[in-house]
Each structure stands twice: as structure tokens, then as C-alpha cells.
TrEMBL record:
Pfam families: ABC2_membrane_2, ABC_transp_aux. Keywords: Membrane, Transmembrane, Transmembrane helix. This is ABC-2 type transport system permease protein. The lineage of its organism: Bacteria, Pseudomonadati, Bacteroidota, Sphingobacteriia, Sphingobacteriales. Residues 484-686 form the ABC-type uncharacterised transport system domain. GO terms for cellular component: plasma membrane. The chain crosses the membrane at residues 12-36, 117-139, 145-167, 174-191, 226-245, 257-274, 738-757. One of its GO terms (molecular function) is ABC-type transporter activity.
Length: 762
């Protein structure tokens, strides 16, 4: 060890007595300064960003300073390592090393140790920017940044080991530098080779660098990636030692090839074994545990025990979604499952490729006098598909019934004897299911899914229609992430007049009945309520006479008149009530929206009144704004004139409830009923509204989670990040600009000049 340290000290002295080492540090610092310092004035002016540690330092989308420099670091190391051994060869001093009592391994390790120390100096330069975050960002996420720095350091050391090996292959430093660039580019590119072939895909991915560094930069430290960097460094150091030893002794070509091959084989074997899921250890360094699935999803996987889960992904080569799930993208697909594999390694994954017709294409083909076989041939030639690798329509139908899945990429999860679908979504900013949908699908495999039934009599809102006033987006749109069928629920409909209300359902929904209920239906509903069934009743203005007979037994009444709200941008009948405290009591996840006074849009709503001494415990969920809204009696005329409060006409000011939650103990469980003075807030149009910020979707999910007693949707929320502000001021920004634009670069330059001048003097 003593000789290794001596060699390292000698190598460092040679390194820093040349201008290249100082120049590299100076250029690195200037590059980082130009990318980081311009962001500071915006932060000093009060610009707010959540998770500042992540966004300023490691987030690729926000050009974090560490992630931005990551792509440039491979440019520095080859210029440092290009002469580390080639210098010995070209000067002839390598012969002295061969004849000296010093082991060649000690020489190589000493030179590598010197590079490790130089890489620490690079990390020190990077830390000059981390210091700004540590000083000026309260609740700075230190563990996350430390893991990111470790990732960079491991990568730099791997680059150095590669550079040392390449330097041993030639006597020309320029050739060594260029060759090192080529090898590093190969190591970055190799992960893209053979992605369509299973065996080659796994092998090349196990050698790829970029994904590993990015994963660790995100704050997820894992044994697989650490071992990878250590093994690759070890491989190239061993190759260097072997190269030098073989130059000193005579070996046949076969012996040389076998020795090199053994080193590579042992290294690749260790890398492959350490990348098996059962062998990987994880540590999520982020404050919000953003790289780890939520506790609820972890609990679901734990409750599955040791039984395997099968995930089969079905991909239709003729549908546009095929482009998101080609064999070349298999690694990214597997990576999406890694957070779940971390807690349940026996999730078995397979992919089935097939071709079949697409909904709506048959009519188009008929109009164009085009057969399906012609269409298949045309599309396969256009997309360059080898149909021999795809199941035919007949073959896929023998395996599984995918009718109703829109011929898109869909996953079937199977656990024991139960199956469920996990879908992909469009149009959506993110095509694949997120944790909420995945967790819901997994939980459906171990618990009975809650069923919500929609009443169909009386021209009520339909769960299957796409009209503005209907509920398909809420209940039954398979392409919509937030739809109930993708959040763990089963949905169905029932005719109250001709059918019976199913037993064991989570809730019955009666939305905007337009004709009076018959005595027979009233009797059915009353029986359902008396037995403790959960119920949602959503009425509309001018329908009080239809709804109130049902609400009477609940101690609730829809008041006559229309709630109006003054607004300079919207119609006076568009109500914008705020979440009340009862909404947080119903679903605690709504608390952030309640505190921020978010609204629910309700076009045309009636006020509700309730008997506080009635049979149910009642709490308001939504309340109108008493400053800008009132209850208008009589007919509301919507024209160019603004609605005016008229006390003589009986108008009433105040804060009125427009949605109520009712509960009581019934048959050893809590009966839950929700009443709304508007049925539009759950409609397709309101859930898709873009001209104002509303919480209709979250409120809707909260209602049905309440009906499901918290079983679905799955709560995947995490703690809010605390590093959301800085203490930067304009004065401190100016001081930092002086320090980082002038003082520190000047110090690095002067240190380099002084050392070089002293070296020249000696």
C-alpha cells in the first residue's frame, strides 16, 4: 500500500505541474457557473418552485446543474489519462518499471489512485455550487445530493480506469485520448444495441452507463449500479495489468486471449448476477421518497404473500400505441415495474404481440373497398413488422378476450385464479399507468372490487354516453386515467322501475331524474336506505318536486330558487363553491385543496337545507361564497344584463350548502349518503373544463373513495417537499455573481499559474 501511495503522489505532482489539469478544472467551473448562476436572480425575486434541491441540481427537465454537467464530464477524463501510461512507454521508462522490484499491479493501482484523488477535486468543484443550495435553501435535501455526487464520482473513476487501459495500448498521447473518447462513447451507446433481441438486450443493458447514473442522480442508491461501476473499473484495471505483464513475458496468442477473456467473463458474470432482482439492495435518499412506491402499495404487495403475479402485456402491431411498446423499448417497460419488483421480486413479466382490427377501421375499409388482409399487409410494410412474430386475430382470441379494450396496449395481471386489466391512456401526457392505477389493479386481485351502480330511469345521466351532461368520463372511459374503472371500481347500471337494486354494492347513484319516481320505485329506494345502503342523489334546479320526496326521509331539502354568483368572466348561473371542512372529514387527501380554497364548478345549482336533528349526522361538503353569491327566487333570466340581488323578490344572501354528506350507523356499519344540488359537477364537460382551475375530478374521486370506505382509489400521496423557497436576496445574488464569475475562477487560475511557474523555476 505504501508503494501505491508513493506512485500516486508522484503521478499527482506530474499532473498538477502541467497546465492541462488546472485548465480542465477551470473550464468545468466556468461551464457550471454559466448554467447555474443565471437562475439565481429569478429565485431572489420570489419565483417559487417545489422541490428546489431536485430542480436546481439533478432534474434533467429543469437543466439541474449536476445533470447538465453529467453529459460533459466524459470530455475531461480522456485528456487527463491520455499520458498516464503512454508517457512511460514513449519515454522508455516503462522498461525500468519492468525491471524494478515494484509490482506492475502497484504501478497501475497507484496511477488509478491518483486519478481517484483528481476526481475528488472535480467533485470539490461541483460542491462549490452545492454549497449555495445548502446555505440559501431551507430544508435542503442533503442525502439526495450526496447520492448524486457519489454517482458522479463512481462514473468518473470508471472513466479513469478505461482511460488508463487505453493509455497502455499506445505510445501516442493524442491517440490515447481519441481512443478513450471512442471507448466511452461505446459504453454509452452499447445499451441501444440489440434491443429487439431478448438475450442481447439484457447483456448490452447490463453494460450501459447512462441509465445507471441517471437513476442514482434521481436519489435512488442501489447495489446493482454501485457494483457495476466497481466491476467495470476492476475489469479495465485488470486488463491494464495483464497487458503490461504480457509485454514482459512471452505468451501464445491463445493464452493471451484466454487471459483477457477470463477477466471479461468474470466481470460480466458478477455484473449480471448483481443485476438480478433478488440480489439488489435499495436506498431512497430523497426526502419525499419519490423513487419508492407508497406505503399503501407496499402493503398490497406484502398481502400477496409469496404467490407470484403474472403481468402479460398485449400489444397490437396495427394500433398507434404499438410505437410505445415495441421490443426496442422493453428495457424502459421493465424499468417501470422495478419499483414494484423491489418489494415483490416474483412478478413475472411477458409480452404478447399480435395483430387485429381496430375499432372503427372496418367501416373505413368498406368505404375504400379495402379488405382487412390488404390493410394488414399495407400496415406491416409501412411499420416494417415481421408478422411471423405476431399472433393472428384467431390465435389471440383463443388466448384472451380483448374486446372492449380498444385494441390498444393493455396489461393483464393474474394472481392465483383472479385477473384484471391494467390499461394505457390517451390522450395523456403520460401514456403508461402510474402508481395509482397500478396499485388499484393489484389490489383488485386480493379484495372484492367495490361496485357503483347508476340508476337509468327517468332520463338520468348515463355512465355510457359521451354527451356533455353525461358521466362516461367519470365512470366508464377506459382511456381516461381518472375514470372509476381504472381506479379499482366496477360500474354497472340498473333500471329502478324494472330491476332490483343489487346487494352488496358500494353505492347507488341517482343523478338528475327528470320524471317523478313511481310509488314502486320509492318503496324500493326506501327499503334500500332502511337497510343501510349507500346512496348519492344529485338534483338540478327546477327539479325540487322530483327530488324532495326522496330527500324528505333523509332530513334534507332542495330549496326553491337558483343560486347565482357574480363574475366578470362567467355566466351568473355558474356557481363556484369552495370545499367545506366536511370535505376534509370525508377524505383527508382533500385538505390541501381546502386550505388553498379551491373550487368546484357547478353550472346551475340549487341550495340545500338540512335538519341538524334528523336521522343522519350531516355536514356540508361545498359552500357558496357569501360575498359574491346569493339564492335568487323566481326565474333567473340569463341575458346580457347582470343578475341583481332583489330583496323584494325574496332573494336571500348568505353561504348556502350545495353538497352534503350524511352518515349513521346501520346494520353494524356506517351508512353513507351524499346529496348535491347540482348533477353537472360530475359531467363529462365539467371534468374536462379548461377555462378555470377546479377540483371537480379530485372531489369526485373523494366521494367514491368515501363510499368505498377508503379501499379505492389507492392513496399514493407522499409528503410535500419542504425545500420550496430560498433566502436569496438581490444583495446576496450580486455577491454570488462576483464570487462565481470572478473570484473563484481567478483563484483557480492563479493557483495553477503559481505552481507552474515554480515548477519551471525548479
Amino acid at each position: 500500500m505504501k508503494k501505491i501511495i508513493q506512485i500516486a503522489r508522484l503521478e499527482l505532482s506530474l499532473l498538477f505541474y502541467s497546465p492541462i489539469a488546472w485548465l480542465m478544472l477551470l473550464i468545468l467551473f466556468i461551464q457550471m457557473t454559466m448554467g447555474f448562476t443565471p437562475k439565481l436572480p429569478e429565485l431572489a425575486r420570489g419565483q417559487t418552485l417545489n422541490a428546489l434541491t431536485d430542480k436546481l441540481f439533478v432534474n434533467i427537465e429543469y437543466a439541474g446543474v449536476l445533470s447538465a454537467v453529467l453529459d460533459k464530464l466524459y470530455l475531461y477524463i480522456p485528456l487527463i489519462t491520455m499520458g498516464i501510461i503512454s508517457r512511460e512507454t514513449s519515454s522508455g521508462s516503462i522498461k525500468l518499471l519492468y525491471s524494478s522490484p515494484v509490482k506492475l499491479s502497484h504501478v497501475v493501482y497507484g496511477k488509478f489512485f491518483s486519478m481517484m484523488l483528481y476526481n475528488l477535486m472535480i467533485i470539490a468543484v461541483i460542491c462549490l455550487f452545492v454549497v449555495i443550495g445548502a446555505i440559501y435553501i431551507p430544508h435542503f435535501d442533503y442525502p439526495h445530493i450526496l447520492v448524486a455526487l457519489l454517482a458522479i464520482y463512481l462514473m468518473l473513476n470508471t472513466f479513469a480506469a478505461i482511460g488508463i487501459f487505453v493509455s497502455s495500448l499506445t505510445t501516442y498521447q493524442a491517440v490515447a485520448a481519441i481512443s478513450t473518447f471512442v471507448v466511452l462513447a461505446f459504453m454509452n451507446y452499447i445499451g441501444r444495441v440489440g434491443q429487439g433481441i431478448d438475450f442481447i438486450r439484457d447483456l448490452t443493458h447490463s453494460l450501459s452507463m447512462p441509465d445507471r447514473t441517471a437513476r442514482m442522480m434521481s436519489g435512488l442508491l442501489n447495489s446493482r449500479d454501485v457494483i457495476y461501476y466497481l466491476v467495470i473499473s476492476g475489469i479495465f484495471l485488470a486488463l491494464t495489468i495483464t497487458k503490461l505483464e504480457l509485454e514482459r513475458v512471452s505468451k501464445t496468442v491463445l493464452q493471451q486471449v484466454m487471459k483477457y477473456g477470463l477477466i471479461v467473463l468474470v466481470g460480466l458474470t458478477i455484473t449480471y448476477i448483481s443485476s438480478r432482482q433478488q440480489m439488489i439492495g435499495y436506498y431512497d435518499a430523497t426526502a419525499t421518497q419519490q423513487n419508492t412506491i407508497s406505503k399503501n402499495t407496499q402493503e398490497i404487495l406484502k398481502n400477496m404473500g409469496d404467490e407470484p403475479v403474472e403481468m402479460t402485456e398485449y400489444v397490437n402491431g396495427l394500433e398507434d400505441s404499438y410505437n410505445q411498446a415495441t421490443p426496442n423499448k422493453r428495457i424502459a417497460d421493465i424499468a417501470r415495474w422495478e419499483p414494484y419488483l423491489r418489494f415483490k421480486p416474483n412478478i413475472q413479466m411477458k409480452w404478447v404481440y399480435y395483430y387485429d382490427s381496430i375499432p372503427g377501421i372496418t367501416e373505413q375499409l368498406k368505404q375504400q373497398n379495402f379488405t382487412f388482409n390488404h390493410y394488414v399487409m399495407f400496415m406491416s410494410n409501412l411499420m416494417k413488422l415481421d408478422l411471423r412474430k405476431f399472433l393472428t386475430p384467431a390465435e389471440i382470441k383463443q388466448k384472451i378476450n380483448l374486446e372492449g379494450e380498444n385494441a390498444r396496449v393493455v396489461m393483464q395481471l393474474k394472481y392465483k385464479d383472479r385477473t384484471t386489466f391494467l390499461r394505457t391512456f390517451s390522450p395523456d401526457s403520460y401514456f403508461w399507468p402510474k402508481e395509482a392505477e397500478t396499485g388499484a389493479a393489484l389490489k383488485r386481485l386480493i379484495v372484492k372490487a367495490p361496485k357503483v351502480v347508476f340508476a337509468t330511469d327517468g332520463y338520468q345521466r348515463s355512465m355510457d354516453k359521451i354527451g356533455d351532461r353525461d358521466y362516461k368520463t367519470l365512470a366508464n372511459t377506459k382511456l381516461s386515467r381518472g375514470s372509476m374503472v381504472n381506479q379499482g371500481f366496477d360500474v354497472d347500471s340498473v333500471s329502478l322501475e324494472n330491476g332490483e337494486i343489487p346487494e352488496g354494492i358500494a353505492a347507488l347513484v341517482i343523478a338528475d331524474p327528470k320524471v317523478a319516481f313511481s310509488l314502486r320505485v320509492i318503496a324500493k329506494l326506501q327499503k334500500y336506505i332502511d337497510q343501510g345502503g349507500n346512496l348519492m342523489v344529485a338534483g338540478e334546479i327546477a327539479k325540487q318536486g322530483i327530488i324532495n320526496p326522496l330527500l324528505e326521509s333523509l332530513g334534507v331539502k332542495m330549496l326553491d330558487g337558483t343560486l347565482v354568483q357574480q363574475s366578470k368572466d362567467y355566466s351568473n348561473d355558474l356557481l363556484m363553491p369552495n370545499l367545506a371542512a366536511g370535505s376534509v372529514a370525508m377524505i383527508p387527501e382533500l385538505q390541501p385543496y381546502y386550505l388553498k380554497k379551491w373550487i368546484v364548478s357547478m353550472p346551475g345549482a340549487s341550495a340545500l337545507s338540512y335538519d341538524s336533528n334528523g336521522p343522519f349526522t350531516t355536514h356540508p361538503l361545498l359552500m357558496t361564497n357569501p360575498e359574491s353569491s346569493w339564492l335568487k327566487k323566481g326565474k333567473l333570466v340569463l341575458d346580457s344584463a347582470t343578475a341583481v340581488f332583489d330583496v323584494k323578490a325574496g332573494d336571500q344572501k348568505g353561504s348556502f350548502p350545495v353538497a352534503l354528506m350524511l352518515s349513521r350507523n346501520r346494520n353494524n356499519k356506517e351508512q353513507r349518503i351524499m346529496v348535491s344540488g347540482d348533477a353537472d359537477f360530475l359531467s363529462n364537460a365539467e371534468l374536462a373544463r379548461v377555462n378555470m382551475t377546479t377540483v371537480n375530478g379530485g372531489f369526485a374521486q373523494g366521494i367514491f373513495k368515501w363510499f368505498a370506505y377508503g379501499e379505492f382509489p389507492i392513496d399514493t400521496s407522499r409528503p410535500e417537499p419542504k425545500d420550496n423557497a430560498t433566502t436569496l436576496t438581490r444583495t446576496s445574488v450580486k455577491a454570488l455573481q462576483i464570487i462565481y464569475y470572478g473570484l473563484i475562477p481567478g483563484v483557480i487560475f492563479l493557483m495553477g499559474m503559481v505552481i507552474l511557474i515554480r515548477r519551471k523555476g525548479k
